[in-house]
Structures
1.
Amino acid sequence: MDSDGNSLKNSPSPALPGVSVVVPTYREAANLPELLARLDQLRRAQALDLDVFLMDDDSRDGTQEAVARAGLDWVRLVVRTANRGLSAAVMDGFHLADKPVVLVMDADLSHPPEKIPEMLAALADGADFVIGSRYAPGGTTAEDWGFLRWVNSRAATLLARPFTRVKDPMSGFFAFPRALLDAAPPLNAVGYKIGLEVLVKCRCRRVAEVPIHFAQRHRGESKLSLREQLLYLKHLRRLAVFKYGHLAHFSQFAAVGFLGTLVNLAALTAYDAAGVPLQAALALAIFTAMLFNFVLNRQITFAESRGGSALKQLGAFIAACSVGAAVNWAVAMGAIRAWPALERLPQAAAVLGILAGLTFNYLASRYWVFGGRRPR
Ligand code: GDD
Ligand code: MN
């Protein structure tokens, strides 16, 4: 066992597949000597066929010198100047990776390189994705992980539940057969959960989790900000549309509609209190709710269509909702006509009407107002 509690088997592993290790780096010069030394040791001890792509966003902190000093011909430093960012760097690394297995890990020694053979073994055993996992049985995180970071990490993990049952989908330490990428739909990770992106988009089924001890970052500080965390929500939304299609769009639309109802009631209360005559207040409240729904649907539900003219879209949305209201009314009336008993329970007829109106509004919004574009 090494100091991190991650064991280094010393029996040679002839059956392990070759691996390209992709390491995104930004200002990690201080960590590179130890990272490369540990990878070098592992490579020799296990006779691994392993190369490394350091995907650096032009750190200018001595990274180039540190790599040169290490003098390892299986390490390639790629200095990126365009399209910066963690996910973009990793995806560029995917294109360069030339071994049968692609593995991604951080440079800050949070991820123990000594676990790589175990991860490769899992792939050799038939897994199509393997995670260096903090939350699988036996996995741990550094003790000095603050409570906030722990809660944050757990909440993020919980939000990924609809997409995958794995214990640590947020991990930045993962590997998969390179061939997976050939059949992959376009990858596009907003934020930094690129592992989750591959896991979901490539529809990996046999996922293995190798427990690791997630160590405290060796040197320097984390680059992941609150902004990245918010981008994660965006990423989840895209994954939802990818995985659940209509259902995801529709539930977002319905959720917006529900909020819109509350806005409608609140606005009505406010206009009424301000002394607006009731007839006008009712109409104004409906209009306010429509505006609210429009903004949210344009920003969230159909975010991929934000490129279009807002004014045109607003006009179309109002027209669509007006027809939707007529559909709502007609269905409720039709239901009462078909089942006269409903006359004593018009609310039940109204619910049918609301559902029909909602479905109409949704279809019109998706295919007409917002032009039916799909996120990637
Ligand atoms: N090229 C490039 N560009 N690399 C970057 C950038 C960037 O903009 N931002 C960060 N990196 C590199 C860092 O140098 C490091 O090697 C790795 O990406 C992870 O960055 P950290 O700043 O150490 O992130 P973290 O410790 O907060 O997050 C890690 O743990 C999370 C789970 O708790 C990452 O592994 C996440 O992917 C993981 O979800
Ligand atoms: Mn880190």
Note: The longest strand covers residues 19-25.
2.
Amino acid sequence: MTPFSNRITKLFNIDYPIIQAGMIWASGWRLASAVSNAGGLGIIGSGSMYPDVLREHIRKCKAATNRPFGINVPLLYPDIDKHIEIIIEEGVQLVFTSAGNPKTWTNILKEKGITVVHVVSSSKFARKSEEAGCDAVVAEGFEAGGHNGREETTTLVLIPSVVDAVKVPVIAAGGIATGRQMLAAMVLGAEGVQMGSRFVASEEASSHINFKNVVVNSREGDTQLTLKQLTPVRLMKNEFFKQVQEAEQKGATVEELNALLGRARAKKGMFEGDLAEGELEIGQVSALLDSILPAGDIVKNVWKEFTDGLANPVKKF
Ligand code: NDP
């Protein structure tokens, strides 16, 4: 497959503008290095890792690939100072920040020569990210799994708005798992795509096999955005989701919802495979997935479908 060249492939020094989202409990060094070795950009999701675990994953990723890879840092992470220190010490070159103010860490990272990308769900936050000095933004729409924006703007509306709002390159995310979806995003002005759910259903993802199986067996309408009073999050509609719905219908307070959520629900669901009581964070696009594949094949298939689609973009019936 011929490498592609645009601002995103040049910024990250990769062959194809396909980025694997940094996801808690799913994207460790195995997944990140497999995606990077296939010519995309692999990202280690640091949100579920204690600092010493993050360091181990960075070192293993460096040993498994000589291609660039990045780290996703959710800015809500409790020990974020330690994560940033490790990222700098280990010489990581690319950081994707999310869920917080891009002004807080961008300068510190950029002073160390690190490329910084921030994940946004609105044009307003895209502009803030550009002002903060970010090199690119990921514009993530309502369809996305896990943490989500409050304004519920869909990818189809968000991408052209963000592309108009900033000069830095825009990476589209939320609801993208196929080459034709990638093509649609690029037609709207994105210069790359970030995919999460597609890579959860990969052989190298560290998520539990029970979770992967639920993802590939799910249907349209099986996910919903919930917990809007706390942090909005898109979940698979399982037993835990129903408990949250019932509590919200009865008018539960923030304290009551926090008590119901408890601690480590995400780990219970996505890493330990408790499909009833765990939190299962996944995007709407899971409905289109039907197989668990090697991550390298995902990159190749998406790229092939994208290039085939580029040659013949409108389906003829
Ligand atoms: P909880 O407070 O429910 O639980 C914390 C979880 O994080 C535990 O499972 C714990 O592992 C693990 N953990 C890793 N490092 C630390 C640390 N330094 N201190 C405490 N716990 C740690 O949080 P969540 O599981 O809901 O979220 C964890 C993190 O992931 C947050 O920073 C959050 O912002 C981020 N997140 C990111 C998402 C994304 O889309 N990128 C989506 C959802 C969450 P153990 O059980 O082994 O102690």
Note: DSSP finds 14 helices and eleven strands in the chain.
